[in-house]
């Protein structure tokens, strides 16, 4: 097999592999409410936040975060998702 054919097959394989559809799970306001919280001990109760409470917290964060803060993009993304 010539070098040209080998290069063509390798390029086609790389392109096809890059085009595979890998599903990315996007987090929503509801899924991030208490997902990182540790398990509660006996007698403790965590009240889940409403979507409005979480949205207000993100808006508050955006008001006070610097323009260079990399987490701003995540906050903006969460605010724009339904």
Describe the structure.
The protein is mainly α and 82 residues long. Helices cover 49% and strands 0% of the residues. α2 (51-64) packs antiparallel against α3. The N and C termini lie far apart (53 Å). The mean pLDDT is 75.
Give the arrangement of secondary structure elements:
Layout: H1 3-18, H2 51-64, H3 71-80
Helix pairs in contact: 2-3
Compact overview of the structure:
The chain is an all-alpha fold. The protein has helices at residues 3-18, 51-64, 71-80.
Sheet/helix structural class: mainly alpha
Average pLDDT taken over every residue = 75
Strand content: under 5%
Helix-strand sequence: HHH
Number of helices: 3
Based on CA inertia axes, which overall geometry fits?
elongated
Q: What is the C-alpha radius of gyration, as a whole number of Å?
A: 22 Å
Main sheet?
none
Alpha carbon gap, first and last residue: 53 Å
What portion of residues is helical? 40-55%
Spans of at least 5 consecutive residues with low confidence: none
Number of DSSP E strands: 0
List keywords for this structure.
82 residues; mainly alpha
């Amino acid at each position: 097999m010539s070098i040209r054919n080998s290069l063509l097959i390798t390029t086609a394989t790389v392109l096809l592999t890059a085009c595979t559809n890998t599903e990315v799970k996007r987090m929503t306001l509801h899924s991030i409410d208490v997902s990182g919280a540790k398990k509660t001990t006996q007698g403790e109760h965590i009240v889940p936040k409403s979507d409005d409470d979480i949205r207000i917290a993100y808006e508050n964060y955006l008001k006070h975060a610097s323009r260079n803060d990399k987490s701003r993009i995540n906050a903006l993304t969460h605010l724009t998702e339904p």
